[in-house]
Amino acid sequence: MLAILRRDFRSYFNSPIAYVLIGLFICIMSLFFVDSLNAGVANFSSNFISSMSFMLLFIVPILTMRSFSEDKKSGTEVLLLTSPVRLSQVVLGKYLAATAVFLVLTAVSLIFPLVLLIYGKPDGATLFSAYLGFILLGMVFISVGVFASSLTENQIVAAIITFVSLFTLTSFSYIGSYVGGLAGKVLNWLAFMEKYYEFSAGIIDITSIIFMLSFAVVFVFLTVRILERKRWSQG
Amino acid sequence: MIEIQNLTKDYGKIRALDDVSFTVEKGEIVGFLGPNGAGKSTTMNIITGFISSTSGTVRVAGYDVLENPVEVKKHIGYLPEQPPLYPDMTVSEFLDFCAELKKVPRREWKSQKKDIMELVKVTHVSHRLIRNLSKGYRQRVGLAQALVGSPEVLILDEPTVGLDPKQIIEIRKLIKALGKKHTIILSTHILPEVSAVCDRVIIINKGRIAAVDTPENLSRKLSDFSRFTITVAGPEKRVREILQGVNGVKEVSVGGKPAEDETSFIVEADKDRDVRRPIFNQLAAAGYPILELKSMNLTLEEIFLQLTTTEAKEAV
To answer: Taking a C-beta distance cutoff of 8 angstroms, is the pair A6, B96 a contact?
Structure first.
């Protein structure tokens, strides 16, 4: 598992993809930064980090699109699946590699709060909580992205599936409130964005952490199932 | 070493493999021969655990591929049709990655890596990106990858495809040398490859095994009548009469005239009768010396065509 994690992580940085993503992210966030400063330091955490999370909708599909698709296309999938490594470890290795790149991106984004710390007094606890929410959200998004990339050997298709799924998942609470009834309840229950807002408001709830982590686990598990099913497929 | 029983694989309504059974002993080099789409790659993918069979069992080194896939995979080095390489890594990095995947102990790996790279002759390109290597070198790196961890069984899917003639000869030599330490299954649709490298041939066609034997036995078994050429010093007409007079000879035709008073004949005789002795006696009695006698058994190419085209003939 560690071998795959390391290889994939390095591969992100061997190609321009990681640099472009991080660069682009920081560029756009600096615009949001100025904007959220205008809204006042008091609301900084929730404002600024919410826009960071919004950006994840675009960043994550590009980050995860190559995860399995590229291996399928270049034939290296055979190497991974015929080596004496369990399927779950292959998937976990790939998932953690993408997550590691995401954590690098998160670390770079810490310059914004740092600038703020020099010139003002933001609430450290809220900032921490908001960042925790951001990281958890990223982990959920990445699990969806890795899952999508296990479905197709075309990276563009993988990215589009990821974007559409993420967009749908994040709007569950809106849809839920319109639909009402049992379906609405289910949608509301699944709406992890609600959980995420709690974090950005400075509320760290252990059930929310568990909820979001389980969401990621479910998608990692589904990815394993997809690869397994392919092995058994009759077509 | 490898036991395959009643292997069947369906792709939807298409039956890619139909009740295939065979065993491979330790240390054997077995050639898997068949036209494109006969089921060679499917069989290999099943043995390596990349895809699963619809029914039937595969055992490698005593482990069942379904019950104990990780153990089976530990014993196998696999070179698929398309060598599985990461273009953004150097040869050296890639082999390190494979060693890590296959959990080769670090102490052993350093010397093993050196040996493997020397064996497949990639040492001088070890620091180049795989992306920039030629097809021949990629194939070698693919082979190196299969050798990582020194697995007992090597499964090579068309290892010489796309190489130039010189490289093909080199790779064949290499495979032959590897056969001393490893059990090897290799697939090919190039016939001379089989007679050059393999101890045993499995001919597969339309998902079924058409024949299993040594290359020599196959050609002996399959010749419908014994054919040979005979060169005799003497007048063509007279010699021909003598040959045709021998009991068991079915047909005599002139194959050529190597010299003024010498003639080569192609003789076809009954399968179960050895006509060589009577021919010698009669020609000797007539005073015409035999200069050459050579058997003309079917080449593998001819056998292959016979085995794989019979159905087509029946249809006509």
So the answer is: no
Q: Do B11 and A235 touch (CB under 8 A)?
A: yes
Q: Residue B73: which of A3, A83, A232 has the nearest Cβ?
A: A83
Tokens coding A215: 């969401």
The answer to whether the beta carbons of residues B46 and B53 sit under 8 Å apart is yes
> CB distance A74–B86 less than 8 Å?
yes
Q: Which domains does chain B have, with CATH numbers?
A: 2-220 (3.40.50.300), 224-295 (3.30.70.1340)
Per-residue model confidence as pLDDT tens digits over A89-133: 999 999 999 999 999 999 999 998 888 888 877 788 888 888 999
* Nearest one of A95, A106, A97 to A128, comparing CA atoms: A106
Distance CA A39, CA A173 (A): 26
How near does any CA of chain A get to the CA of B54, in Å?
8
Tokens describing residue B106? 């670090």
Q: Which of A78, A232, A234 sits opposite B80 (nearest CB)?
A: A78
Residues B170 and B164: their CA atoms lie apart, in Å, by 10
Return the residue in B101, B141, B158, B161 with the most chain A beta carbons within 10 A, the one to mutate for interface testing. B101
CA-CA-CA-CA dihedral for B208, A235, B76, B30, to nearest 10: 20
- Give this prediction's pTM: 0.81
Between chains, do A75 and B10 touch, taking CB under 8 Å as contact?
no
- Residues A211-223 have pLDDT tens digits of 999 999 999 999 9
Residues whose CB is less than 8 angstroms from the CB of residue B254 and which lie 6 or more positions away in sequence, other chains included: B236, B240, B263, B264, B265, B266
Smallest CA–CA distance, residue A17 to chain B, in Å, is 13
ipTM score assigned to the predicted complex: 0.87
Long-range contacts of A177-180, Cβ-Cβ distance < 8 Å, separation of 24 or more: none
DSSP B56: E
Integer Cα distance of A82 and A169 in angstroms:
34
Q: Which residues have CB under 8 Å from A204's CB, separation 6+?
A: A129, A132
